Amino acid sequence: MSGFTRHRRSGQVIANFTGFEAELLRSLASQLVELLRNEAAVPRDQDPFEAMMDFSGPTNEPEDPVLARLFPTAYADDEEAAAEFRRFTEGTLRDGKSQAAIAIIDGLEDAGLPPELTEEGLHIDVELDPDTAETWLRSFTDLRLALATRLGVEEGDEAFWHALPDEDPRAQAHDIYEWIGYLQETLVDALTD
User: Fold this and answer.
1) What is the pLDDT of residue 135?
2) Residue 10, SS3?
3) Nearest 5°: phi and psi at 155?
4) Distance separating alpha carbons of residues 58 and 56, to the nearest angstrom
5) Closest of 2, 1, 3, 6 to residue 190, by C-alpha
6) What is the pTM of this model?
C-alpha cells in the first residue's frame, strides 16, 4: 500500500490496497459500527423527522472506555449540564461516526472487495471524491482513538511499543494503529494537494 494520492485530472483521491489490507480495514470499520450501535443511544428504524425530534439519548458517560473517549463529557465541572448536552447530542454523534465507518466498508466493497476474502493476490483500487475522502478521514480518527484507547497508547511511549517483540499481539495491534495513522496522513496530504 502506497497510501492515498490525488489524481491530477479527475480530482479523485485514490489508493490501492491488497486484499488483506482492505479486509483488515473493513473489519476495523465493522467493529467500530458494532461498538457504536451496541447501546441504546442510536435509534433504529425510526422515522427521520421523529429521530430529529427525539432527545431521549443517554445522559451518563458510556462505560466502555473507547466510547467514553469518542464521546467525552462536555462539562466536567457541571454534571447536570453534561447530562443534558449528552442527551441532546450523543445519539446524533454516534450515528455520524457509524455512517462514516460504513462509508469505508461501502467504498471497499464498491471497489471490489468480496464479502469473504478467499482470493490470494487480490488488489483493491479505491477512488473517492473529496467529500467521501473527508468522511474516511473522520473515521480513521475514530479508529485510531479506539485502538489507542484499547492499547493504552500514551504520548511519549513510542520506545515501549518499539521494544515489544514482533510476536507480541500488542505490537501487532500497535502496528495496525500506526498503519491507520499512515493512511490518515497520506489522505490529508492528498486532500490538501
Assistant:
1) 98
2) coil
3) -60, 135
4) 7
5) 6
6) 0.85
Low-confidence ranges of the chain (pLDDT < 50): 40-44
**In angstroms, rounded to a whole number, what is the distance separating the alpha carbons of residues 1 and 56?**
44
Task: Give the pLDDT of residue 41.
Answer: 45
Distance CA 71, CA 189 (A): 27
59: nearest Cα among 32, 91, 33: 91
**Nearest-CA neighbor of 75 among 64, 88, 65, 56?**
88
List beta partners, residue 16. 125
HSE, side-chain direction, 13 A CA sphere, residue 20: 4
Supply the pLDDT for residue 70: 92
- Give pLDDT, residue 73: 85
Contacts of 11 (CB under 8 A, 6+ apart): 129, 130
Query: Which residues are CB-neighbours of 74 under 8 A, at least 6 positions away?
Result: 81, 82, 85, 86, 89
The cell numbers describing 151, all together, are 492499547
d(CA 99, CA 105): 10
